[in-house]
Fold these 2 entries.
Entry 1:
Amino acid sequence: MTRFEHGIPLDESSDRAASGVSRLPRSAGSSALERDPGMPSSTWRLRSDAWEYLRFAVKRLALGGEDAEALASDSEIHRNLRALETMEMYWAGFGQRYVRGIGELLEAGDYRIALDRIGRVVNRLRGDTVPDEPRDEHLDEQERAELAADADPRPRFEVLVVDETTPADRDAMRSEALRLRGAADAFVYEFVVVPSADDAVAAVLTNPNILACVVRPGFSDRTRQRLSRDLVETIRLARSQVSTGHTSERSSLASVQRVLGLADTLAAIRPELDLYLMAGAHIEDLAGALTRRFRRVFRREDQLELHLSLLRRVSHLYDTPFFSAIQDHARRPVGVFHALPIARGGSVVNSKWIRDLVDFYGLNLLLAETSATSGGLDSLLAPTGAIKKAQDLAARAFGAKHSFFVTNGTSTANKIVHQALVGPGDVVLVDRNCHKSHHHAMMLTGGRAAYLEAYPLNDFAFYGAVPLDRIKQLLLDYRAAGRLDEVRMVTLTNCTFDGIVYDPERVMAECLAIKPDLVFLWDEAWFAFAAFHPVTRRRTAMASAKNLEERLRTSAHAAAHRAQQQRLYDADGTPAADEVWLEERLIPSPDARIRVYATHSTHKTLTALRQGSMIHVYDQDWVREAEEPFHEAFMTHTSTSPNYQILASLDLGRRQVELEGFNLVQRQLDLATSLSQSIARHPLLRRTYRVLTANELIPAGHRETRRPMPLRDGLASMWQAWAADEFVIDPSRVTVEITRTGVDGDTFKHEHLMNRYGIQVNKTSRNTVLFMTNIGTTRSAIAYLIEVLVKLAERFEEDRAQLDPELAQAALAAEAPMPPLPDFSAFAPGYDAPGLPDGDVRTAFFRGQQRRHIEHVPPGELRERVDRGEQPVSAGFVTPYPPGFPVLVPGQIITAEVLDFMAVLDTREIHGYDPRRGYRVLRAE
Ligand SMILES: Cc1ncc(COP(=O)(O)O)c(C=O)c1O
């Protein structure tokens, strides 16, 4: 039987048994790595660990210390080399031969030379450009040239070449690339050459440095490597999502189909990849058939053209028009005869009192500050130049048709979208737990909010997400009442603060089957990063809109729709019972309109200064229905003095994700998973903390797969869950239940994590803490967090041991049980709608703004009124922060449940409620 490590076979009979590597002595034991399934999601970590370990071990050998003999028989060296032999096949620079060569050197006892070679790789991985011990007496000319190339400080990327090649071909290709490298090139690249479609998929899944791919039709289909089960399964899933048609192998179209199939697969995994086709014969015919998939088709001898195209494309990704304009502006001598005395340091550098502003932030901040919109800069309110270009690039990166920068957070982005799309009297189905900006938007637009309830997670005092059945049922209710035409928009938060992720494509498809012109606003404040990973991307609003649009165009979809209509309507056009509509997975009409908006707090999950946000649009009716109102709304909410540094940071954040987004997100997900795993495996941590998994956070009825933490089992398992389940958990967030620590979430956050150890977390509930990783999270940060959790756990155990058991029991009994989270009660008469849940927030709000219409009522007295059967009506929003959604909105009936919940809430910040004065209640007419 073959055992796997790092995605690598450990099978003795492997065809590498004859290599120098396998002849190294082996010993029993060291089973820890063998159990590692070698997931593609953690290859980056395993690869770097393997090289670091080799450097450590071979250095010992080279120094000839007393443990040299023990190390020589260390099977760990052997296994790491075996692992790297397969891994390096998918990375440029060194490759399998290099690893094999190190094995041979070790076999021959040439430890010093082996160490130099290993050192070269480690330096490269660490990003060091200066070799630590430049001993080059044993290097040949080629190696010396490569070492010099390693020291090249220019940004480096990798180009995948898919073709069956000989070692001589590959050497020739690499030397040609080195020969073409010019001093004026802004970037350098290297080739990764793989023989088969499977290997190409493995490479783009595991190696994020690949930014371009050259397909040559000579590639074979299957890999000859024996990869880990997870990698094999992920490759299968990735390849099966693309249909390659049914052309027979012998047909003349077969090779075109193979090439197209591979191109589609690679583009579906990494849409940012630049694809080229390099062909010999019939290139003109191929160009016609294939150019939609490929940027260009080349003949083999056009190496120089390919070289230039590769560099040009990366320079397009690198281009940051607005950041460049700001830099230019900062370098120009400019006289300021308008506002902004801070511009160019005017009011600062000559002041003796505020010079520390320059000392701290640097002069560039002031040189970059301006209120000008001319001289290469642009106006955010009417962009035609650098800002417009930067926004168009953002649209490309996020898969949108149009993107807009927002300098006041998603709070503002949401209001812009609402105002653009919703008018007075329009009904909006809106998750009651969505961010308060949506509720404020309802008040501003005069739209009628019909609140959707998410499923509650009462044990942890927060909400999940809104089941699709509830959304469908509500739409059916509006249809039954003859008011479906009033329903304009559906607004949901994806993912939720706690990491629960919808399947937007499914939600939109089924809703559109009931009302084909619905507009969707997906609040992706926490989900901007998701666009840069092949698994998470499919659940972003923009990717879902695109997929849905493509699906609706197919004849298979039209046929399925026609067939379903027969089941949904009887012969005279009467709709079947609601149960039928709820049971069926509804198929929208091919004529349904795709109108999708997403808002991103770019600053929350990607590189951007605070408040830097974006709106992304995928709207088939943009020009006819939305463009003008959108611009009016944008101007309503956007400052006429938007912050240029925020805009420049959005431009740079976009450049970063296009060039290294996959790398960063893949690491983030992997590190978060390793955090969960550490907590689950460590005996003390396991006793004290519990990581909440999909089993706890998603009711079983909303999942088809069953793994509690799919990514822990591998990328394939995550892929399957994210393809099938109604809800999934964003693995970058780790919710930890802390009941057994004996302290509540707020105390844990402030007193223990922040005050003692300087660790910031964003959100807690009474008995949970949410640890969020992001693209800046490092392995050291995770290690520090684990260390702190262990120290705290020891402390909590000690505290518990000191407690008198009877007192502890009594304290536990005295603790008030957390009441369930209150559902939205109802709008009061006068603001409500008979038989349906929508209500008029706006009228109630403005009435509540007039002192004569309201009274302040203390909680005790209000509770008595409720107990007497009265129905007091809230005059305003009451929003505990966190979680940040209103427990009361204007016009809502105040119930006992709401008051009980508020009475035990230990949140420090409650917007709209002053405990000295009580609740703001509308007086009866
Ligand atoms: C779901 C959701 N939407 C919108 C926002 C507002 O985003 P911003 O802070 O960028 O204004 C938040 C903030 O926490 C949020 O959680």
Entry 2:
Amino acid sequence: MSEIKNPLEIYGALAKTNCGECGVPSCMAFAAAVLQGQKKLVACPYLDPAAMARLSQNIVQRRSLEDDHQQAISQLQQQVAGLDFSLRAPCLGARLVDGNLAINSLGKDFIITPAGEMVSECHLNHWVYVPLLHYVIVCQGKEPLGEWVPYSTLPGASEWSQYFSHRCEEPLRQLADAHSDLVFEMLHLFGAKPATLSGGADHSLVILPLPKVPFLINYWEPEEGFPSKLNILLDRTAGENINAQSVNLLARGIIEMFRQLILRHSRDGKLF
Ligand code: SF4
């Protein structure tokens, strides 16, 4: 029998009574949980021992998202480990501190060791870890020109473009609508600088998630009969200093950070 990758193949061997004795509400949920490594086949008392033996040998558990992130970070760390930091620092707009790279992101230092480990007073997650390591590896040191282009024009952005719009720009617009003062106060706290107002926007601010990868955030407040608008533009040089996926991760990380801060600091502790 070939490798089992589909829960239906496990489901086919179950009693299909949805009795719940395995600790999940249905046989289908149990099959999915087994494939994801959250349940063992032995948790179902009604599974025939021969079927259990056969399935056990052929189940390929799906990797968790966390495993994928960790693998991506490990691969990037291996590439960082071969770099000469004294040559990379000026290219990245970073400082060399005791043999480590200090990269400023939104006013906070992130220290990267020669082994690719990261240290910061900020919370570290894959939204910051992956793009920073990637930046260390690929940044060509192009100085931003102050010419702003949409995310969709970045090389390789086509498959991420919709995601960027739905998971980055739209959630930030909603946050700005619901907590305008708080959002702009946070942007200023994270070093945002006013930019020339773009396309009639009410607010145009430049932030620096990476020293050579600025974002321009434009926000149009809602007006009678017209909803608000928000876009995040990139410098024309962005594609030479980082890739589209890392820009996406950075933007997502910033928005998630804002969501957490708003939950903590808004008057009613609610996002909307
Ligand atoms: S114990 Fe077995 S039969 Fe009952 S719901 Fe779970 S998988 Fe289905």
